[in-house]
Amino acid sequence: MTTPTPPAPQPHSLLEDAQGLLFGSLICAFGVHVLTSAGLVTGQTAGLAVLISYATGWSFGPVFFAINLPFYALALARMGMGFTVRTFVAVGLLSLFSALIPLLITFDRLHPLGAAILFGVVTGPGLLALFRHRASLGGVGILALWVQDRLGVQAGWVQLAVDAGIFALAFALIDPMLVLYSALGALIVNLIIAINHRRDRYIGT
């Protein structure tokens, strides 16, 4: 008896992509707000933007948007126009939301440990939403997804390796204890991605 062939996955509709990008960008922007409100840092391109923001006083959103610009050439060459456009939209939305959320939400008390855990558990699903709608938050995310597609190395582990370099720089700029709390948040994010963003389990476009 032969096993029935599973139906081919249906592509996401434009509306489904739009809600996925909005949700992913918004929840990741909230995670960044939690992170920076506690003086923490993260890895990847966002982490570099946070460190530049701390060192210069510039707003995170514009810095994050500018840092991502060189990576779109790689995205276009390796991942295609659709991925590049969706990623550009996601980065733009996160930059916008990261400027608006602090006007709506503030924290009277936010322990760095709690902030690190909250950042991890909200940002991980936000990134998953973007990945599953064929987008990312640019920068290292583009590189990590390309490595996963081409070499089979899971995106979460690629990003974890890059994070190590970002955190080494962070030790020179912020309190070491805050860096350790930050590392916990980044670990939670990457574990969520590594466990859940698997091509052998998730079927979709």
UniProtKB/TrEMBL annotation:
One Gene Ontology CC term in the entry: plasma membrane
Cell compartments where the protein resides: Cell membrane
TM regions (residue ranges): 21-42, 48-75, 87-107, 113-131, 151-172, 178-195
Membrane topology: Multi-pass membrane protein
Entry keywords, A to Z: Cell membrane, Membrane, Transmembrane, Transmembrane helix
ATP-binding listed as a keyword: no
InterPro entries reported in the protein's UniProt record: UPF0750_membrane (IPR051461), YitT (IPR003740)
Source organism, top-level taxon: Bacteria
PANTHER family attached to this UniProt entry: UPF0750 MEMBRANE PROTEIN YITT (PTHR33545:SF5), UPF0750 MEMBRANE PROTEIN YITT-RELATED (PTHR33545)
Protein name: YitT family protein
